[in-house]
Design goal:
- This protein is α/β, with parallel strands linked by helices.
- The chain has seven helices and nine strands.
- A seven-stranded mixed sheet has the order 5-4-3-6-7-8-9.
- It binds S-adenosyl-L-homocysteine.
- The site of S-adenosyl-L-homocysteine (SAH) has 24 residues, from strand 2, helix 5 and strand 4.
């Protein structure tokens, strides 16, 4: 009787340990692929994103490798997530929307302002040859650079600096994508946009609107696309 009880207790104990071990391992790699596919179908395609290049890029880039470990299992949810230093990685749909709105082609030279985790830059580089990205916070710029290197991206150039100044040495750009919100469209970024170029940028403070800014014959055309909510684009020290 005693032996039987002991045996039962032992097997319950072993089961609990096995369950604990499995649950602490998080989601298996192959499950992330499934979650990613689900995300693309239910959040991206179903909401009207049509560009095959964008859809393929969203299927390819492993968003769970761009968020802190504790948020990994939430990486394919329909929401932004914290990446430290009070900053966030954008909601997947917004990344796809901005990427599609830019109307990218392979040869485009692209500038991103607000590297954050490096996720948007990775999505962009699945579509174009060269991506230049600027991050104002040193630790985020460093970790994004390391992450992108580790993941094998060779054509993304990360600069730690103030995005209001753009990247004059590399200008002009065919496309500029800004992922933090200024209160007005920065003059210097307009200057660094090529003739015929497009800038996708959220503008405002609490209420923000995402704009597509096009440069034609030296003039700016501005089109409102979507109400959005981004972290503010901060000014660097001079
Ligand atoms: N694109 C990022 C998310 C952007 S969050 C991603 O895919 O993960 C916005 C980022 O813009 C933050 O990391 C913030 O530090 C940065 N930022 C804010 N003001 C900036 C500025 N003036 N120049 C460059 N980066 C800036």
């Amino acid at each position: 009787m005693r032996n039987k009880l002991g045996y039962k207790l032992k097997s319950v104990f072993v089961t609990v340990i096995v369950l604990l071990l499995f649950s602490s391992c998080g989601v298996a790699a192959e499950d992330y692929e499934g979650l990613r596919e689900n995300m693309v179908n239910s959040q991206i395609i179903s909401r009207g994103i049509k560009d095959e290049k964008v859809i393929n890029a969203m299927l390819k880039v492993k968003r769970h490798l761009f968020v802190p470990k504790e948020y990994e299992k939430y990486a394919y949810r329909d929401q932004p997530l914290p990446i430290g230093y009070s900053q966030t990685i954008s909601q997947p749909y917004i990344v796809a929307f901005m990427t599609e709105a830019a109307g990218l082609k392979l040869s485009d030279k692209v500038l991103e302002v607000g590297t954050g985790s490096g996720y948007q830059a990775a999505v962009l580089t699945e579509i174009v040859d060269r991506v230049y990205t600027i991050e104002i916070l040193g630790p985020l710029a460093r970790s994004a650079k390391q992450r992108l290197k580790k993941l094998g991206y060779k054509n993304i150039y990360v600069l730690c600096g103030d995005g209001y100044k753009g990247w004059p040495e590399e200008a002009p750009f065919d496309v500029i994508i800004v992922t933090a919100a200024p209160s007005e469209i920065p003059e210097e970024l307009v200057k660094q946009l090529k003739e015929g170029g497009r800038m996708i940028i959220p503008v405002g403070s609490f209420f923000q609107e995402l704009y597509r800014v096009s440069k034609k014959d030296g003039k700016i055309e501005k089109k409102g696309l979507l109400p959005v909510r981004f972290v503010p684009m901060v000014h660097g020290e001079d």
